[in-house]
Specification:
The complex is a heterodimer. Chain A is built from three helices and seven strands; from the N terminus they run ββαβααββββ. Chain A is an alpha+beta fold. In chain A, α1 crosses α3. Classes of the chains: A alpha+beta, B alpha+beta.
Chain lengths: 194, 195
């Protein structure tokens, strides 16, 4: 089984007080955790790659715990989430897809209200590549106020034989959300959608 | 008395575990905290920049504390620091100087407990999404060669035209694999701020 080798990691927390409108009594917080790891399949075509999914699970869980801790270790505060991966140039897009299960289920394991699918995106890119990681409500994907995205990147990663794997969480709706649609207060919270 | 009108604060902690295949144990760690504030002097010429100096004092304490908290260290464990500002297009470079130089340093030094060295700084005019490189230098002795470094910060939606991005960076370590000689962290005296 390939070993997960981490070169670096980072956590960013953004506190948003307003965006030109009335300051919120409860600032929106958006957080991202990322790990720069060695891509065990870089540089050649490897047919069977799914073993790495299980290898990534402990990392996913640790990253989700670290990010939650940066939010104050209170799972009930988290209302939105997302995940993403950037694969370095000696890898292929499919390697980024290995992050779907370990990334998503790690957050859903820790968060009590997480029936919604974890939205995701991925791409191949060089050091400094930015990824706009999508965010949706963690319990009902159609909640319009919580559709968002968090830009994540690292100036020196991913190098050719690396992957940057990312998890993001938010504490609530966009700061001045007023575009209508399903409200968080009105969700049924059974099917993960509404 | 003017205080900062803060739109957002972004705080990042970065840990480096490996460099060129060599294990970094303990990992080197650096943090940056960036406030996006309204520029009270944007749009017209202001001879007196006192309002910005007051903001600088406030942000030195706030951002220094946020970096130390994000690193999860005691203030005394901080090893290097730096400060930077990027002014949105309706401001002027001098606004960055007014925030950074007169009063930001003292509360920042207090936040990292007894910084004696000059706080390394950089400044520029810029727009949303531009990169700001925050220089880093040892907090006690500017000549400590292992701790010369820099940390990149960037916010996709800041600074808007009437805003300023103010950044403070703090580390609990130097570069991952320092080997270019010079004064070391262990040999620094830390009285004159230089050696």
């Amino acid at each position: 089984m390939p070993e997960v080798i981490i070169r670096k990691s980072f956590i960013t927390i953004e506190e948003i007080f307003h965006e030109g409108g009335p300051p919120s009594a409860r600032p929106l917080r958006r957080g991202a955790v990322a790990s720069v790891i060695v891509n065990p399949y870089a540089g050649r075509y490897v047919e069977s790659i799914t073993d790495f999914i299980d290898d990534l699970r402990p990392l996913g869980l640790q990253m989700a715990k670290d990010l939650l801790k940066a939010f104050g270790d209170e799972p009930s505060l988290i209302e939105g989430y997302g995940k993403g991966a950037i694969v370095g140039e000696a890898g292929e897009l499919e390697h980024g897809a290995l992050w779907h299960a370990p990334g998503g289920y790690s957050m859903r394991e820790l968060l009590p209200a997480s029936k919604a699918i974890v939205p995701s995106t991925k791409k191949v890119g060089g050091p400094g590549t930015l990824l706009d990681v999508p965010v949706t409500h963690s319990n009902a994907s159609y909640v319009r106020s919580h559709f968002d995205a968090i830009e994540v990147g690292c100036s020196d990663a991913p190098r050719a034989h690396e992957m940057l794997v990312i998890l993001v969480m938010t504490s609530g709706a966009r700061i001045h959300n007023r575009a209508g649609g399903l409200a968080a207060a009105d969700i049924i919270g059974e099917d993960g959608l509404k | 008395m003017s205080t900062a009108k803060i739109r957002k604060i972004v705080t990042t902690v970065e840990n480096t575990y490996l460099e060129m295949g060599k294990s970094i144990d303990p990992p080197t760690r650096r943090a940056a905290s960036v406030a996006v504030i309204e520029n009270p002097c944007a749009g017209s010429y202001h001879e007196d920049l006192e309002a910005l100096m007051v903001i600088g004092e406030e942000l030195g304490e706030l951002l220094g504390r946020k970096c130390v908290e994000a690193l999860g260290i005691e203030p005394s464990q901080a090893q290097s620091y730096g400060k930077s500002a990027m002014v949105g297009e309706n401001g002027e470079l001098e606004h960055a100087a007014a925030i950074l130089h007169p009063r930001l340093g003292k509360p920042l030094r207090a936040a990292v407990e007894k910084g004696a060295a000059l706080v390394a700084s950089s400044k520029k005019m810029g727009s949303m999404g531009q990169v700001l490189d925050v220089p880093l230098g040892h907090k006690k002795a500017a000549y400590v060669r292992s701790h010369f470094d820099g940390m990149e910060v960037r916010i996709n939606d800041a600074p808007r035209a009437n805003e300023i991005m103010v950044a403070v960076a703090v580390t609990d370590s130097g570069r991952p694999l320092p080997r270019v000689g010079g004064l070391t962290h262990g040999d620094a005296v830390g009285e004159d701020g230089l050696r």
